């Protein structure tokens, strides 16, 4: 069973900790229920820009002192932004845990967004955009969000636009944080060999002066979807394609069966159906995979591949053929058993990473108010039937529901 402890401070901040005795590394971070979907139209890219600016100065530290604080003792300090989360996190030797806790608190709650640093980081982010636009296999996946979620904040690129990034001032960051930061909707999560009591004591030391802020999430739900097919010519040497459609939300009971179906279709295993049918049998692609992402009110299932321009139609046809098999041909008992064992093994290996475990625990508390143990998830997987998968395949993967985005060489 997943053994973790949780403590809620008077200001609403939850401290979540799992003690792992056999490690010398302490992983920890603040995970907040704030993401790019919480931006106003003129704020596109602001959450991600904030992630960068948190390292650029606080009320008592300049940028160099922030970056050097943990690096000088062999630790790491990092951050990420998604559609629904912003996270600042670190990894250090256990004896430096307090140092990392204090620094994470400082950059999360006391950043000052110096104008000179905003100007410098603006250039960095514009370069990040250019780098990403030069990588079609990444750009097409992000652009596909805009195809499916057209007109909705989930369709906006996390990096923002060149125009929006060029416009941000210090006050924009303050306004965004003041509007979205809620102590009830953030957690400090840690995985280390330290006892829970010590983590709580440090939390009380460094977080007690943070005032309680209660702001209920006010997210626009996604309700309108129209399938589309879009083909764009680009200066590239290979055709790229994403096929997909909306899927089940985070709290849907059909989420686990769909994860299993996605794993069978195009998961990380070399024995996925798409890899066997398109790469191994016909040699048409180097990479082909599928992915299922969940949000609080919707989800997204996508299939990506790159191929020669002249093979785009044939490769797409082979993908659709595999989807049809999933809709029409139930798994045999051995196939079903193998699919379950593969997914359970992958999930167990993912939990071997203490950093990944720390992230998973924190996000689960925010999204579901609990952390499901592997045994609970395994029980759900074992209960899945072949009929369940057929029903879900027909509901989600029906050809009439699919959108297509193609990049082709000009």
From TrEMBL:
It comes from the Bacteria. Residues 21-162 form the Peptidase M16 N-terminal domain. InterPro entries: Metalloenz_LuxS/M16 (IPR011249), MPP/UQCRC_Complex (IPR050361), Pept_M16_N (IPR011765), Peptidase_M16_C (IPR007863). Residues 168-343 form the Peptidase M16 C-terminal domain. Belongs to the peptidase M16 family. This is M16 family metallopeptidase.
